[in-house]
Amino acid sequence: MADTVAGNTELGATKQDLIAALVQRELAFSAKLLPFFMDVSAYCIPGSKTISFPKLTSFTVVDRVEAAAGDATALTATVDQLSLDINAYIAYIVDAMTKKQSNIKAEMEYAKAAAAAQGRYVDSQIISILGSGAYNFQNVGADADVTYANLVDMQYKYIGNDGLIEQGVWLMSASQNKAIVQLTEFKDVSAFGEMVIRDGFVKQILGMPVVVHNGLAAKQLFLAAKESIAIGFQSGLAMDEQPANEYGVGAVRVAMDQLFGVKAMQTGLKGAAAGKSPLILGLND
């Protein structure tokens, strides 16, 4: 009995499914910062251009005197509003000759590259919010490497603003990570354990994980809480194609887009200025 070999004819029917799966994997891989912040996509209903989040003040507990009425207090509320206004779009054309003289892998590589660019774009939007929404900067205006005292001071301010250690993350450029590795406090790995420095990178600082990201400028470093930034996708990454016969029979124009919003949260609280989140702290400016 002759062997049955799967070729382009057999795979063609599942091409879109294969590419769609690849696109989602590549987006998840390239958008490194998404897991560390608050995903509010569940609230991004069709037809809505914004999402509102209430910010409540806290109750004050009093020691009520026996047989005396206690004073009632009320919470006041303001609102953080997330605008769903980032329409991230990419389009490319696959020439008919290219399509005819290559295989399915070529089309998948195009889609993979486009999805990777979309993922990096999502991260760039988060990074822009870190910079604009930071409550406080160490070494303002100075192009300086981080010191251990900087890290301790940032953690101190973070905790003072009700930041939770279990929800915090350090985000930094490769050059700042290199500077930290060389700090006296981090040179002796045995003092911190294997999980602190691994593969030449600092993986954890003062109980919180570290993410090194090439999208950050050379000397940038941030400490942020998960709830300091909200990101919501009203339309997740999707792709479609149409004929582009001006480039030959069989040529296609492919579009890939997503609609989302990103915003600093808890802004204006704990003495922070308007638009600034007390749960985002930065180094340099």
List the helices and strands and how they pair.
Blueprint lengths: L7 H5 L2 H16 L7 E2 L10 E7 L20 E7 L2 E9 L1 H6 L2 H30 E5 L9 H13 L7 E5 L1 H8 L2 H4 L9 E2 L2 E2 L1 E2 L2 E5 L8 E5 L3 E15 L8 E13 L12 E7 L2
Helix pairs in contact: 2-4
Tell me roughly what share of residues is in helical segments: 25-40%
Walk across the major sheet and give the strand order: 5-14-11-6-10-9
Distance between the ends: 71 Å
What's the overall average pLDDT, rounded? Answer: 83
Q: How would you describe the overall organization of this protein?
A:
- This protein has 285 residues and is an alpha+beta fold.
- It has helices at residues 8-12, 15-30, 96-101, 104-133, 148-160, 174-181, 184-187; strands spanning 38-39, 50-56, 77-83, 86-94, 134-138, 168-172, 197-198, 201-202, 204-205, 208-212, 221-225, 229-243, 252-264, 277-283.
- The strands form four sheets. Strands 5-14-11-6-10-9 form a six-stranded mixed β-sheet.
- The radius of gyration is 25 Å and the shape is flat.
Short structural summary:
This protein is of the alpha+beta class and 285 residues long.
